[in-house]
Design a protein that fits this description.
Blueprint (H helix, E strand, L loop, with lengths): L3 H18 L17 E3 L4 E2 L6 H16 L3 E3 L6 E17 L5 E16 L18 E9 L7 H18 L6
Parallel strand pairs: 1-3, 1-4, 2-4
Antiparallel strand pairs: 4-5, 5-6
Length: about 180
């Protein structure tokens, strides 16, 4: 019996030390995001492109990504904790490969988006970490290839690029380490 007491005592001290060292450690996806933010307002994304519904489709994809992958709740009020606004600034197509008779075989569709994420005080929460300039809009770009011969169109390429853009934008909402 006396030999078990020191063993139990050292085991208890070890557990207390481990628990104290991990007291501020968080588990799960919640630890990736800022705990002081609960709601995000996403106004309709504007588009400088002449193609219809690109902004609406990107808005829908971003809202779905936020709801699925973050602990934040998307609300329809500018009085939310933060506002995530974006603008499609460029939409281009270019031929990547063509046949001998100048018929396009593979075409690339590109989208460029400027994103701002601000809290109620006007502080920017998302910025390009590669540069140490004053915080301004964060730009993301995505391209998708399509093959007209295979039944694909610019609409399918845009949808693929939009989904990737939404994933990129939401991944930038994670807290910096």
């Amino acid at each position: 019996m006396p030999r078990r007491l020191p063993c139990r005592l050292s085991l208890a001290i070890g557990w207390v030390a481990v628990a104290a060292g991990c007291a501020s450690y968080q588990v799960g996806t919640r630890s990736l995001y800022r705990p002081d933010i609960r709601t995000v307002y996403v106004p309709m994304i504007e588009s400088d492109s002449l193609r219809r519904n690109l902004g609406e489709r990107l808005t829908e994809a971003v809202v779905k990504e936020i709801e699925q992958k973050t602990p934040y709740k998307v609300v329809h009020s500018p009085e939310a904790d933060t506002v995530l606004s974006a603008r499609i600034t460029s939409e281009t197509k270019r031929v990547v490969a063509e046949e001998l008779n100048d018929i396009p075989r593979n075409i690339e569709a590109d989208l460029v988006v400027q994103v701002n994420w601000q809290d109620r005080r006007g502080e920017y929460l998302m910025q390009d970490s590669r540069f140490n300039f004053a915080p301004v809009a964060f730009s993301v770009a995505q391209s998708a290839d399509f093959t007209p011969e295979g039944g694909q169109s610019v609409a399918t390429a845009h949808q693929e690029a939009i989904q990737r853009l939404a994933e990129q934008i939401v991944s930038q909402m994670e807290s910096r380490w």
